[in-house]
Amino acid sequence: MIPVMQEVKETAGERAIILKLDIDQHSELAQQYGVYSVPSVAIFKEDNIIWHKNGITPAHEILEHLSLEME
Fold first, then answer.
1. What is the pLDDT of residues 3-56, one digit of tens each?
2. Which stretches of 1-71 are DSSP H helices?
């Protein structure tokens, strides 16, 4: 997912912050947000999760959800 997230960051620029979380070291956070498989992608807005997907996700799908939330 690293190349996918790099593409998302290049396209979204400063409008998005990308974080990587080791769910083995932070299992409580993973459980709190429903992350049960790797990779997982979540979009937050104002401390609330607004979209989440487990599994490999193409950059265009992530960017589509980011665009909807940034309007």
1. 999 999 999 998 899 999 899 999 999 999 888 889 999 999 888 999 999 999
2. 2-12, 27-32, 59-70
Domain ranges of the chain: 2-70
Q: Round to whole Å and give the CA distance between 41 and 28.
A: 17
Sequence length of the chain is 71
For domain 2-70, the CATH class is alpha beta
Neighbouring C-beta atoms of residue 51, cutoff 10 Å: 16
Q: Tell me the pTM.
A: 0.83
